[in-house]
Amino acid sequence: MSDKLGDMRRTHQCGELSAGDIGKSVVLMGWVQRRRDHGGVIFIDLRDRQGITQVVFNPEVNPALHDKAHGLRNEYVIGVRGHVDARPEGMINPNLTTGEIEVTAGELQIFNAAETPPFMIEDRIEVSENIRLKHRHIDLRRPSIQRNIITRHRASATVRNYLNGLGFLDLETPILTRSTPEGARDYLVPSRVNPGQFYALPQSPQLFKQLFMIAGFDRYYQIVRCFRDEDLRADRQPEFTQIDMEMSFVGEEDIMAVSEGMIRLLFKEILDRDLELPFQRLTYAEAVSRYGLDKPDIRFGLELTDLTDIVAGSGFKLFASAAAGGGVVKAINVKGGGDFTRKELDDLADFVTVYRAKGLAWIKVKPDGWQSPIAKFFTDAEKQALIERLDMAPGDLILFGADDARIVNDSLGNLRNHLGRRLGLIDDATYAFTWVTDFPMFEYDETEKRYQALHHPFTAPLEDDCDKLESDPLSVRSRAYDLVLNGFEIGGGSIRIHQIDLQQRIFKALGMASAEYEEKFGFLLSALASGAPPHGGIAFGFDRLVMLLCGEQSIRDVIAFPKTQRAACLLTGAPSEPAKAQLDELAIKVRKIQMEG
Amino acid sequence: MSDKLGDMRRTHQCGELSAGDIGKSVVLMGWVQRRRDHGGVIFIDLRDRQGITQVVFNPEVNPALHDKAHGLRNEYVIGVRGHVDARPEGMINPNLTTGEIEVTAGELQIFNAAETPPFMIEDRIEVSENIRLKHRHIDLRRPSIQRNIITRHRASATVRNYLNGLGFLDLETPILTRSTPEGARDYLVPSRVNPGQFYALPQSPQLFKQLFMIAGFDRYYQIVRCFRDEDLRADRQPEFTQIDMEMSFVGEEDIMAVSEGMIRLLFKEILDRDLELPFQRLTYAEAVSRYGLDKPDIRFGLELTDLTDIVAGSGFKLFASAAAGGGVVKAINVKGGGDFTRKELDDLADFVTVYRAKGLAWIKVKPDGWQSPIAKFFTDAEKQALIERLDMAPGDLILFGADDARIVNDSLGNLRNHLGRRLGLIDDATYAFTWVTDFPMFEYDETEKRYQALHHPFTAPLEDDCDKLESDPLSVRSRAYDLVLNGFEIGGGSIRIHQIDLQQRIFKALGMASAEYEEKFGFLLSALASGAPPHGGIAFGFDRLVMLLCGEQSIRDVIAFPKTQRAACLLTGAPSEPAKAQLDELAIKVRKIQMEG
Lengths: 597, 597
What we know:
The structure is a homodimer. The first copy, chain A, is an alpha+beta fold. In chain A, 29% of the residues lie in helices and 24% in strands. Chain A contains 16 helices and 23 strands. In chain A, strand 14 (361-366) and strand 15 form a beta hairpin. Chain A is globular.
């Protein structure tokens, strides 16, 4: 046979032989990780997915075979039939499961030669990510990446077993579908059979999973690919995977309980960590008030304190005018930050300008009073009130934000995370989960001069707030919930609207005329009128979840074939220019364009 | 809460209560399948995914609740708190698991009203498929379709458990990828970030799974969506799902054994059928010789018999010239077909013209000799030879084909299937599997005047035939194998090429210059040079497999949201016209075209 396997069939993986196997005849197959010549004897570290076994070619035992082994180089693919022996005293490697044994070769098949790899197949390498992605088939041989990809498999298998056990059905939804607004740009696919018409790749299976509930499937899940044509940031991919689920006849508690059970099982199976349930909960209002952000990292303090009432009447114009203009004044007390240098304080001020803050007022609390450019503006009473509310003590550094609430929260919230990392307040070994609930239903889009759904337009409002849908939409809270881990949003969902009249009111609140929503969502409205049960669901970002489980910094390290920030696959060269005949068949033309960058 | 669930939480599904639950207080939720008013009492058949429970509203027990229940109509969504009672004597329904009990309602929540459905929620309905697809969320409530979709879930869970248990890794591959030739048209996706460039949706993850093997993952599988922009026939969809797998360090036997175990488990789990292993095997040559087709239905006889040698010198010009021109003469003996009418024979002749046969010669074997327009052309010796080889007996009908081998095999092979169905020779309860192996590597494309790969260009040739790659490509056999069930190809795969030099020879045999294959497949060649193990795999058409497991005739009945033969989703209205701004962002234009049909 051309593959040279002949009658050679693997008996073991390279990671499984141990002292108990001594005396056995075995066949191993794998890659040459390393060849050493030692005292005339050739030692091969033979590698496969499971581990490494040392193979010995001894010229005194078999001179011809020893000669053949001389030709072996790193990454050659071989098969070895041999005998499991105990390693000599002093050669035992206690760090390796196979460290007590070696295989004395009796037969060698060289299945394939290998060119010298462009980088070493090991974890700590100094090579650009682009080189790694171009040679991804080699990069994927490195132990850490291989472990990540296998962990990803284990995580998906764990999720499936858990959800299958709870009566969830793994149901498939279309990839060639209709454009629905999820807030990002769609990838479009021209239809050849229907010229001028396009499919959209789904940003999520949202409406299909709702249709499954309406059709009576009761509990749905899918580990499913989704697509967003966004400008890529570090932690985004054009295609990503989510754990998507939906349940009928449930409220928030049911979905949170199923989710918490799933996350606990994942952390137990993958990391052998016991998470305490239930997870903490914060309303959106509380999260933003205390942490500035709706995805708070709750592993450390440095919480934000609102001081607007104290400083509203103060002599410091910036604070007084922020308060008078409907804004807020808030501060963080950085315990022990009193020795920050002027340079360091300037850097922090630069940091917050990214978040549109105009400056960063500060007070250093010294044993003999305040050191601060703004101290002079406050009365003794105001000073006393600030000291008490901020629990000031000598050595503290107080950092202020004063502006619109959104700018203050955003800038101080991000400053808080920055300081947390910088001051070493974050325990990397801690996994701190919190649910964030009661999000606003809408936000106002200044550019388009209309309200937009903060989650999506199928999210149910809180019953108590429904009467304000038309009169005061910004005050309406939704039945949406996010699950946040260490400052990352890892999942989000909501109870959905199941009544046609409420769904129509939401579309109207979003500025759609009935002709528009009938055209876009007529099929949903018709389904809601056909007997729709109360239902809700959640979706978890699987790439990010696996990234956190693997302790990685980038989702590209847990995706086998990721794309770059230019949305390109460096390995295969996608995207690429199609043949003109292909475009002709699709009845489309590429416009003359100025190529960018 | 707006969903009216309040503190009502389901305690049971509608299919699970039985006599053992009598006396319990329960909460059920579901759809009104039917309402009957009987002697002043209202009976509701309450339906969910699991079954039906009878709910009773008795005016004497609770007049207000009885009044409320009067408003219920079919497909209303309700919740009921009640008491499990034994049904009165004579009301017991032994066909229902819940047939011994009923639930006497104590509380009723109406979660949603429902319009009268466009068709009945039951199995035998007279309604066009287009109406069903337009209201698919309602169609999916019908018991047979719901069962199919749930069977699909069970089938995928069974496959995953089986493959996970064998050390296969469920690994994801990109959907936005590079066009590779699999013989069908690609769906293209314009890239906004890289104007003028396009991704292709994968026709299969073929090269990525080979890269996984080269990267050392050893055993890969994925239940994965694939895409082909073909003109749709009855049994095709633009997107379809396959069970895709690949293994390293294996030969054909290993892949067949894993596949057979998987199929056996599926049939046991889903149908409680015990399949006998191993499956029968036929070479391509033998399949075509005996059955005319490379996906033979082996549940019945009517095999083809080659008569070329006997009739080559006969006086019947059509046979003699077919033989002289390198063609063949073959026949089917239809036992008991001797009483076919002239009209029936004409219909059979029409049938084979679809397969380019020019006619259908025939002989009816009577007790007193042959009745046939062609009998007179044969000598007694030729007649005797035909009688013996075809095992002729009175009452038989012999049907002949004479032409190029391809036309004869194709027309008689399809005629054989047609007759098998028509004569009731096929036992629908039988599942007959056969492997077909040793396919030709190439076929000659008359239009493009070049060789094409019969499977794909990464399929390994048989070692014995490698020396004919350049000199006689059409005689080279491949290490490809298909699994055929009852005449359907349900899976196919091959041992792949793992040596760079052999891969280059194949590309050349396919007429590619080295610049062309380097441009298209440079990354594969580079991977083959980096230490590629012997490997092979297989892919199963999951939609068709589930269709056969469900006993359905169309894959659309096992896909939740299928597309029509015009590649449209009638429910959501995909594909649709995009906004001009979307196309502008993608730098493409729709050409003015004459809309067809």
